[in-house]
Structure formats: structure tokens, C-alpha cells
Amino acid sequence: MIKVFLIVNSSGKIRIRRFYDEVEFARQQQIEQKLVQLTSKLSPNSCNFFKDLDGIYDKKCKIVMRFFGTLYFIAVIDEDESELGVLDLIQNIVDLMDKIFENACELDVLYHPDKMNALIDEIIVAGIVVETNIMDIQEALKQQETQIKNK
Amino acid sequence: MSSGSHLSKELHDLIKSIGETRSKQEEDKIIIKEVQQLKTKLNEKNMPPKKVKEMLIRAIYIEMLGHDASFVHINAIHLTQSKNLALKRLGYLCCSLFLDNDSELLILLVATLQKDLASTNVHIVVNALTAVGKLISKTFVNALTEPVLKLLTHNTDIVRKKALMVMQIIRQLNQDCITEQDYDDRIRRGIQDKEPSVMGAAFNLYHEELKRGAVNKYKPLTGTFVSMLKQIIEHKLHKDYDYHRFPAPWLQIKLLQILTLLGANDLKVSEQIYEVLGSTLRRADDTTINIGYAVTYQCVKCISGIYPQQSLLEQAANSVSRFLKSDNNNLKYLGINALTQIVSISQKYVLEHQMTIVDCLESNDDTLKKETLELLFKMTNEQNCEVIIQKLIHFLKTSSDANFKKDLFVKISLLNEKHAPTQEWFIKTANTLFEFGSEFIDNDVRNNFFKLLIDNFNDIGTEFGEFITEIYSDLLKNELQDNILKIVCWVIGEIGSQIYDQDPNKLNELAQLVITKLDSQLESETTISWILTCLAKLQSARAFQMFDQTRTIFQKYMQSKNLDCQQRAIDFFTLAKFNAALKGSKFVTVDPKMSFLDAYVQQERQRGAQPYNPSLQVKAAALGSATEAPSLNFGPYSDNKYGGGAKTGTFGTEENKTTNQNPSAPTIAGPWDDTGYNQKQPAAPKPVIATPMAIGSTTGMGSNGSGQTTTTKTAMQAMGSGQMGVNTNQPQNTYIPPVRPLPPKEDPNLKEKQKLANQLFPSISQTQQQPQQLYLFIHQINLEKRNFCSVYSKTYECKSKSNLSTSNLLDIDDPLSAQQPVLGVPQVYVQQPYIITQQPVVPQQQLQPQQQWSQPPPQQTIPQQQIKSYMPANINVDQYEQLWDRYQNVKEVTLQSKIKSEQDFRKMIQAININIIEVIEQEIICAGANAENKSCVLLYGCYNLNGSLDLKINSTDPKDGEYILALIKRQFC
Description:
The structure holds 2 protein chains of 2 kinds. By secondary structure, chain A is α+β, with helices and mostly antiparallel strands. Chain A has helices spanning 25-38, 83-101, 106-111, 113-123, 134-150; strands spanning 2-9, 14-19, 49-51, 62-68, 71-77, 124-125, 128-129. Among the domains of chain B are: 441-582; 870-972, 2-Layer Sandwich (TATA-Binding Protein), CATH 3.30.310. In chain B, the strands form 2 sheets. In chain B, strands 3, 4, 5, 6, 7 and 8 form a 6-stranded antiparallel β-sheet that branches. Chains A and B meet through strand 2, helix 1, strand 3, helix 2 and helix 3 of A and helix 1, helix 3, helix 5, helix 7 and helix 9 of B. Chain A: InterPro entries: AP_complex_ssu, AP_mu_sigma_su, Longin-like_dom_sf.
């Protein structure tokens, strides 16, 4: 299960914040802060996985982190979730963003939090990855957008 | 790139200005201004929807930066009621992002959600479902269950899929909403759905159920899952589900996770899985894309999770070892993780990849290094430990990462302890380890190491002792870090002094080496303490000669500013004095029969003197000294001592005979038989004079315990008399319990003999006194404040002597360390005298409260005082209940108090100074004891949020209950 999904820019500003378990707002910010600090450990060649040894979220959890352009994609996952699977899921999300925003960049995430969140909601429901087929998600989102425009 | 052109200038400016801020303060200023603006604007009527939308997006932005935007929550809820899909979606999004599950505002949403879930517009339904998934809580789960379940048969797959997930959440929140049967049916229909995406979602539900422990229930479904996996890997799914031409990888992963749980520890189920697992692994191995590796990794996890099968394990180890050779650190990491899993089943398959694994330690990636270390630790055994430890030490030398080094240090020392092939190797490795990781040596490490050494030394003996003393004295010739120097000092002091007890040259050499270290650059004063202790141990060796030097050194450090160091110097200095005296008396042996006096005695007897009856004399001596104990007396035959005025002769009388029949006194006879002084008495034992009793010996102690309080002085008297006539082989009888006082006899012969003996052996009486004082001194270091009855009985022997001194020195060794080394053979090394002496005869009130309270209930009555003080009682719940039943003084009250939380309650308990035993929600039980008389107080309290406090107090003494109640009323109500 995915516990937290974050998109953070390279200067540490949160762009998307999704917590899938009930976590108090104050603690959410603590967790974010520590995760942002952790991004400093990520270098192009290093491992994208971290064990949450310090108990940022929970000591049993693992942290998957990936850097694209100016954005860090961070997921905190529980022990059952496959690290590589989530890493590719992030890739999937980035692919989708590219398709929806046409050459996505940080500003798209900023200006369209509604679209961005709708996209994530299609993929992750209640912390569980329910859909990984890009075509299906794209189709679903497109339909929504057309309907919004038609109205 | 799409710009924000369609959005308002305000949002654009906000983002821009925030982006340009340099500090948190600047950002805060901007946000405060922004919040003000939003607040006023949102309250304006007839805002165009587009404006509202834009303002909410600004609010999201503000909240994302970590600021409070709760003023828009109500607007978000309004928005969900909009007919415009875009606005509705944004409204739901804002609600999911902003509102907690227990927010009171949620109640306003329920009606909207119900309506939207029943909508004919798919997108409205989907958005509503997403919001339900995030926001649903126990309070309104019932209201939404029905509409959600209806959606499971919706004709759009996206809706069915999400409805399944929401159903799972509903079930988690409230089991009663959906019956188990119904739930099972619905997920079964889920995996039979014609749309693979719905099927995939249903897998998650099974996985969750299995994780919750419902494994047996779903075992019959194994076949279904296996065939599904088979279909997927054989490309039977639609091409849409391929990811980089790999068939539905996430579904494969999910299925593998399910199968792992189903097959765990179950051969039958596992057998159904083996085949498909093998082919899944093969197919995943053929790909070179990341997601393929993810499936491989999942296969390995599955293989090591289910009932193990050899060929699969081998296949798994091989596939995974490829990961290790990859340049990609992610793969290496997973490879290591996977091997760690396999290792826990069998080391066999992993060992061949040993060197590849070790190389992963060279990586510059922390995560990877940590995992590799963990794996290496698990896979080390006797065969490969030399290679692995060498490698690890190499990393310890070269690494600059302190955390990693600490890990390494701990792991290496554990491996070394566990798998070292020979002792020599063990010691050498330990030394190298200490050398390169000296900063990690703490008390635990040290004590652990000492224990190992001493255990080995006790098992193997001299050979090992010589060997390690050799190694460590060699080390002393080099520059050493303090931490290692401490270890060396300990070894030389503890083991060297025993091994070379009789070898003055060696002892001198060792002492010289140690002394030179005092002049070297030391990091801290405590090291000096260690060196001094080492010298003190060395000087306790029998052949030690360098007393002058040690005395000078101790004298020098008596001025040390370090208190510990100073104290030691003073102690050891005093010891040195006695030690030196002891040496002079060492090898004197005495003819205990004193046969040289025979002629004289014969002569006297012929003149009509009475024969000597030893049992009476000795016993009287013991008794006399035990009861009076006014001063030291080393002349056992001084008649006025035992006499006490009663000088009527009863030699050879009835009384004498009964005494001899007394079973507690038979061996006192020693060199004399019971008919009196008899030179023909054969096989008299030969005690070595000037060998005082070993304080630390277990034998002989305790058996004399008749509950008497004797001071150490009397013990010494008993000892003093004992050494004249005691059979060394049966030391427990040295000291005779006072059966009944016997009138001692004056024997003119003896008096004479005594005189003569004193003339003949002046040196004996002198020297014997000093060692006794020495041991008394040592003993007093330990016992100073305790009043123990100790009876020394075992005659001094070479072996136990050195043990004795070391044990006592050890006892006062390193007071700074929190933990004393727990050493191997108890009676030799760690024993502190009071353990083996008799029951401490200490007045009860002097005992530490904790000690007494470890065994409740203490029951003493001492007059109470007006102000009572209490102390915590360390008892557990069971003991609490037992005690509760035992006391009959229950007081039960309900008070209106200031106590409204556990914290308040704890404060109260703290104020009374008793302790909490257990907290169950709002009920708390505590126990304590009256500090004066140790009577027990038990308290049960139940606080309520409104301040009402139920209290039940039970106590040994009802006054305690009343007192505490009054205290609570006064201070907390």
C-alpha cells in the first residue's frame, strides 16, 4: 500500500501532497520536511529506495524517490509493496502527465492541481494502485475534460 | 507546455512572488496578505464560478505551503453541490485535501455524496466515489454503504473498480455493514469481471484479506489465482495491458504477492504454485526492462516465502545474482534484499555469490551498503568467516562514514565471537577491530570482550593466559589509543598477574611496560585509573617485587584532580603496604604438631600435668571470641581469654564426652585426638601458617550461619584460633555454632607451650596479622557500610589467594562504568564477598526501599508520623490483585476533581509519589508504600473528562488510605 505520495520541487516546495492514511496536519508537515531532507541523498546514480530507518513515517516503511526535471516524486510504501513496481508507477505518472499537459513541467502541476489530483486519483485509490494502464486512465480523464468543456 | 494564461493574474502573481521569496518570513508575509484578500473576496455575493474556482486553487496552494486555509473549507463544501462538473470536482478535491475524517463539516457532505453516487453521470459518480474513499468515517459509513454497493454492478468499469476499493474501506471501518458472505461473493464477482482492470482491483481486496490472516479461507482459490497468472504470462490479456510489451506486470506482482501468502508454510498449496512460479520467473528473466526486474524480484520473494523448493531456490539465486552485477544501484539493492530473503531459508545458494556481494560494500550508496552488510552478516559461517571478516575490516579501515563504521564494528565483533575459527584468530581479529574502531568501544563492548576472555581462560587455563598476556604485552610496546590501552591494562592486570604469579621477572617486565604508559599522552584521566588498577592487580601477585615503584606512583596520583583516580591511588597505596608485608611471610611452613615440644610435654606429664583436650579448648576459644570480641587475639591458648573465671577442670569427664559426640564439633580435634595431647596421633594435616582465609571462597562460608552477628574482627579471631588446630580440609568447621558454652580449662602445659610457641615464632604472629589486616582492608572497601557477618574459614591457598585479590580489586574496579563485567566462573572472579557470606544482618530500616519492595508485602509496624511520605512499589498487576484481596481497608469515593486527563492523573500520582502499574483507557491502578513503615497502599482510579474521579484505595493500614484521600481532596479537587 502507498502511504504517502508527494511531488516536491527541487527547492523543497510541496507541489502535490496526498496522504492515504489518517495523519494529523502537523505531523504531515513534519513528515514532508524530513522527506524533503532525504531528497538530498538522491544522486543520479544512487539507489532510489530507502528504508525508513529513522521512522520518518513508520520504521517498517520504505521510501521510493525519483527525480524528473525539477520535481521529486516521493512515495512512502509499506513492506508489501514492490519498490521497483512503484518506481515504474512514478514513471507511468510522468508519462501520463506528459500526455495530458503536453510536455509537462512544474508550472502545470502548480496551475492545475485539480487535473493533477484527478490523475492521481485515477491511479491510486485509498493507497492502492488500482490502474496502471495509461490508455485507460487517459481515456477516463479525457472524457471528464470534454464533459467539463461542453458544459 | 501549457501556461497559466487562462488563469487569473492574481494566481500567477502569487506563485511568482512566492517563487521569488528568499526566506520563510517573506513567504509568511505574502501568505498573510493573500489570506486576507481571499477571506474578503469569498464573502462577496454573486461571485462568478470561475473566480471561485480560481480562489480555491489559490487556497490549495496556500495549504500546500503549510499554512492554514481553513476558512475556505465551507466554500469547498458549497462547491460540491455545483452542477458544473469542473467545480464539483474541485469541491470534492478540496474536501479530500483539507478535511479530516473526523471533521464536523463532513456531515454537510453526506447528502450531496448520496445524491452524486446515484447520479447517471459517470464522471460525477467517479468523483463522488473518490471523495468517499478518502473521507468516509465511522460516523456516516452506514449512510453510504448502500449506494456504494449498488455501484458494484455499474456498467462502467471505472466505477466498478473504485466501488470495489471503497467497499473494502467500508468493510474495514465497520464489519457489520457488509456480511462476510456478501463481501466474499462480491470480491469473487470482482475477479470474475470481464474487465481486467476491475479484476486487478479485486486482487487488492484479496491481498488485504490475506494480510489480515484469512489465509485458510482462501486457500481453495489458489488454483484460480495460479491459472490467472498463467493466462497473464501467456499474453492472454488484451495488448492494452502490456507495459513495454510485458504483460500486465502490476497484476503479476499482485498475484505473486497473493500466492506468497497462500503458500507460506503449506507444502500442498505451494506445490500448486511451483510450476507457474518457475515459468513466471523465466519469462521475467528474459526481459531487460525495469518492470521485468520488478517481477523477477517479486518471484524471488514468493519463492522464499512459500514452502521451499530446491530447484526454484537455485533458479532464484541465479536470477538475482545477475542484479548484483548490474550498474544500476536499484537492482543491486533489490538483489541484496532478495538474497537476504533466500539466505534466511538456506545459505547454500547464496554462498557462491559471496564475493559479488562483498563488492557491493564498495558502493558509495548508503542504503546499499547497509543492506549488504546485513546480508553478509546473515550469510557468514565458520567456513567463510575469515574471508568476510577480513573484507569487513578492510572497509572499516577505509570507510569515512561514521554510521556505517559503527554498524560494521558491531557486526564484525558479533561475527568474530560467533564464528572465529581459533582463539588466536579471535584475539588478533578483535585487536585489529579495536585498533580501527577504537571510537566505538564502549562499556558494553569491553565487558563483553572481558567476559569472553575470562571464560576462555577458565576453560583452557594457563596456556591461553600466557598466550593473551603475550599478545597484549607486545601491544603495550606500541603507541596505543586509550580505549585499547584500557583493555590491555585489564588483561595484564587480571590474567597476567595470575599467570605469572610466581615469576618475578615477568611481573617486573609487565609492570614496567604498564608504568611507561603512564608517561605517554593519554586522552583522559580515566585511563590512568585503569593503569593504576592494573598495577594494583599486578602487585597482588605473590612474586611481585616492585613495591617501591608502585608506591611512588600511587603516591603521585594521590594528588590527582580526578576523584576516581585519586581514590584508587589512595586505596592501592594502602594495599601496597600490606601486600609487601604479606610477601615476607610467604613460604613459612610450620609443623603443626609442634613435635619439638614433645619432650618437654612428656616431661611435664610425668610430673603430673593433665593431658590437653583440644576440642574443649578450641571450642571455647571460638565461643569466647564470638561472644565477647573485644580485641584481636592471635594467641589461641591464652587461657584468660576462654577462661572467663570458670576454671574447674573437666578433662575426660562426662561433659567432655558429650561434647565430642556433638556432630558439629568432630573435626576440631585436628592434630590432637580426644584423649588429649597425643604425639602418636597420625596423619595430622599441615596447614600453612601465614595463609589467611580466602575471603572470596565459597566453601566454608554460610554453613556456619547460626544467624549471629559477628564483626569482621571476631571473624578474624575465629580465624586466628582456627589456624592453630583446624583441619584445612574441612574448613566449614572452623567456627562452631554456639551449642552451649563450655567451661574452658586452664592447662598449665598449654600455657607453657603457648609461651614457648610465642618465643619460637614471633615472626608468625606478626606476619599473620598483617595479611589478615590486608584482607580485612580489602573487604572493608566493599563492605564498609554494610554490616555483614562473615566467617572466614578456608585456609589460604595459593590459587585462591590470587583469585581473591583480583576479585576484590575487580569489585572496586572502574566505578565510572555503569556495568561491571560479568565474568565467567562466579566463585573466582566476580563474587563480591557479601554474596557468599551469610545473610546480611542489616537492620531493616537501613535497607534500600527498592530492595525491600521487590518482594511485597512487607509488613512492619513502626509508629506513624503525622506527615506521611510514600514511595513507589514495583509490583505487577497480578501482585496488585493479590494484595488487593488481602487487605480489607477499601475506601471508595467519587470526587469532583481537577483531573480530566491521564496526564493530570499522572501528575497526581507523582505528587503522592507512588507509581502507576497499569493504565487501561481511563482506569489506572497504582501502588505505593509508606516510606516509614513500608505498609502498602493500593489505588484504583478512574477519571472522567468532566472531572469526576472514582477512587478506590486499599491499604495495609487504613490510616494510609485516609491520608492519601485527604491529600487528593486537598490538592486536586
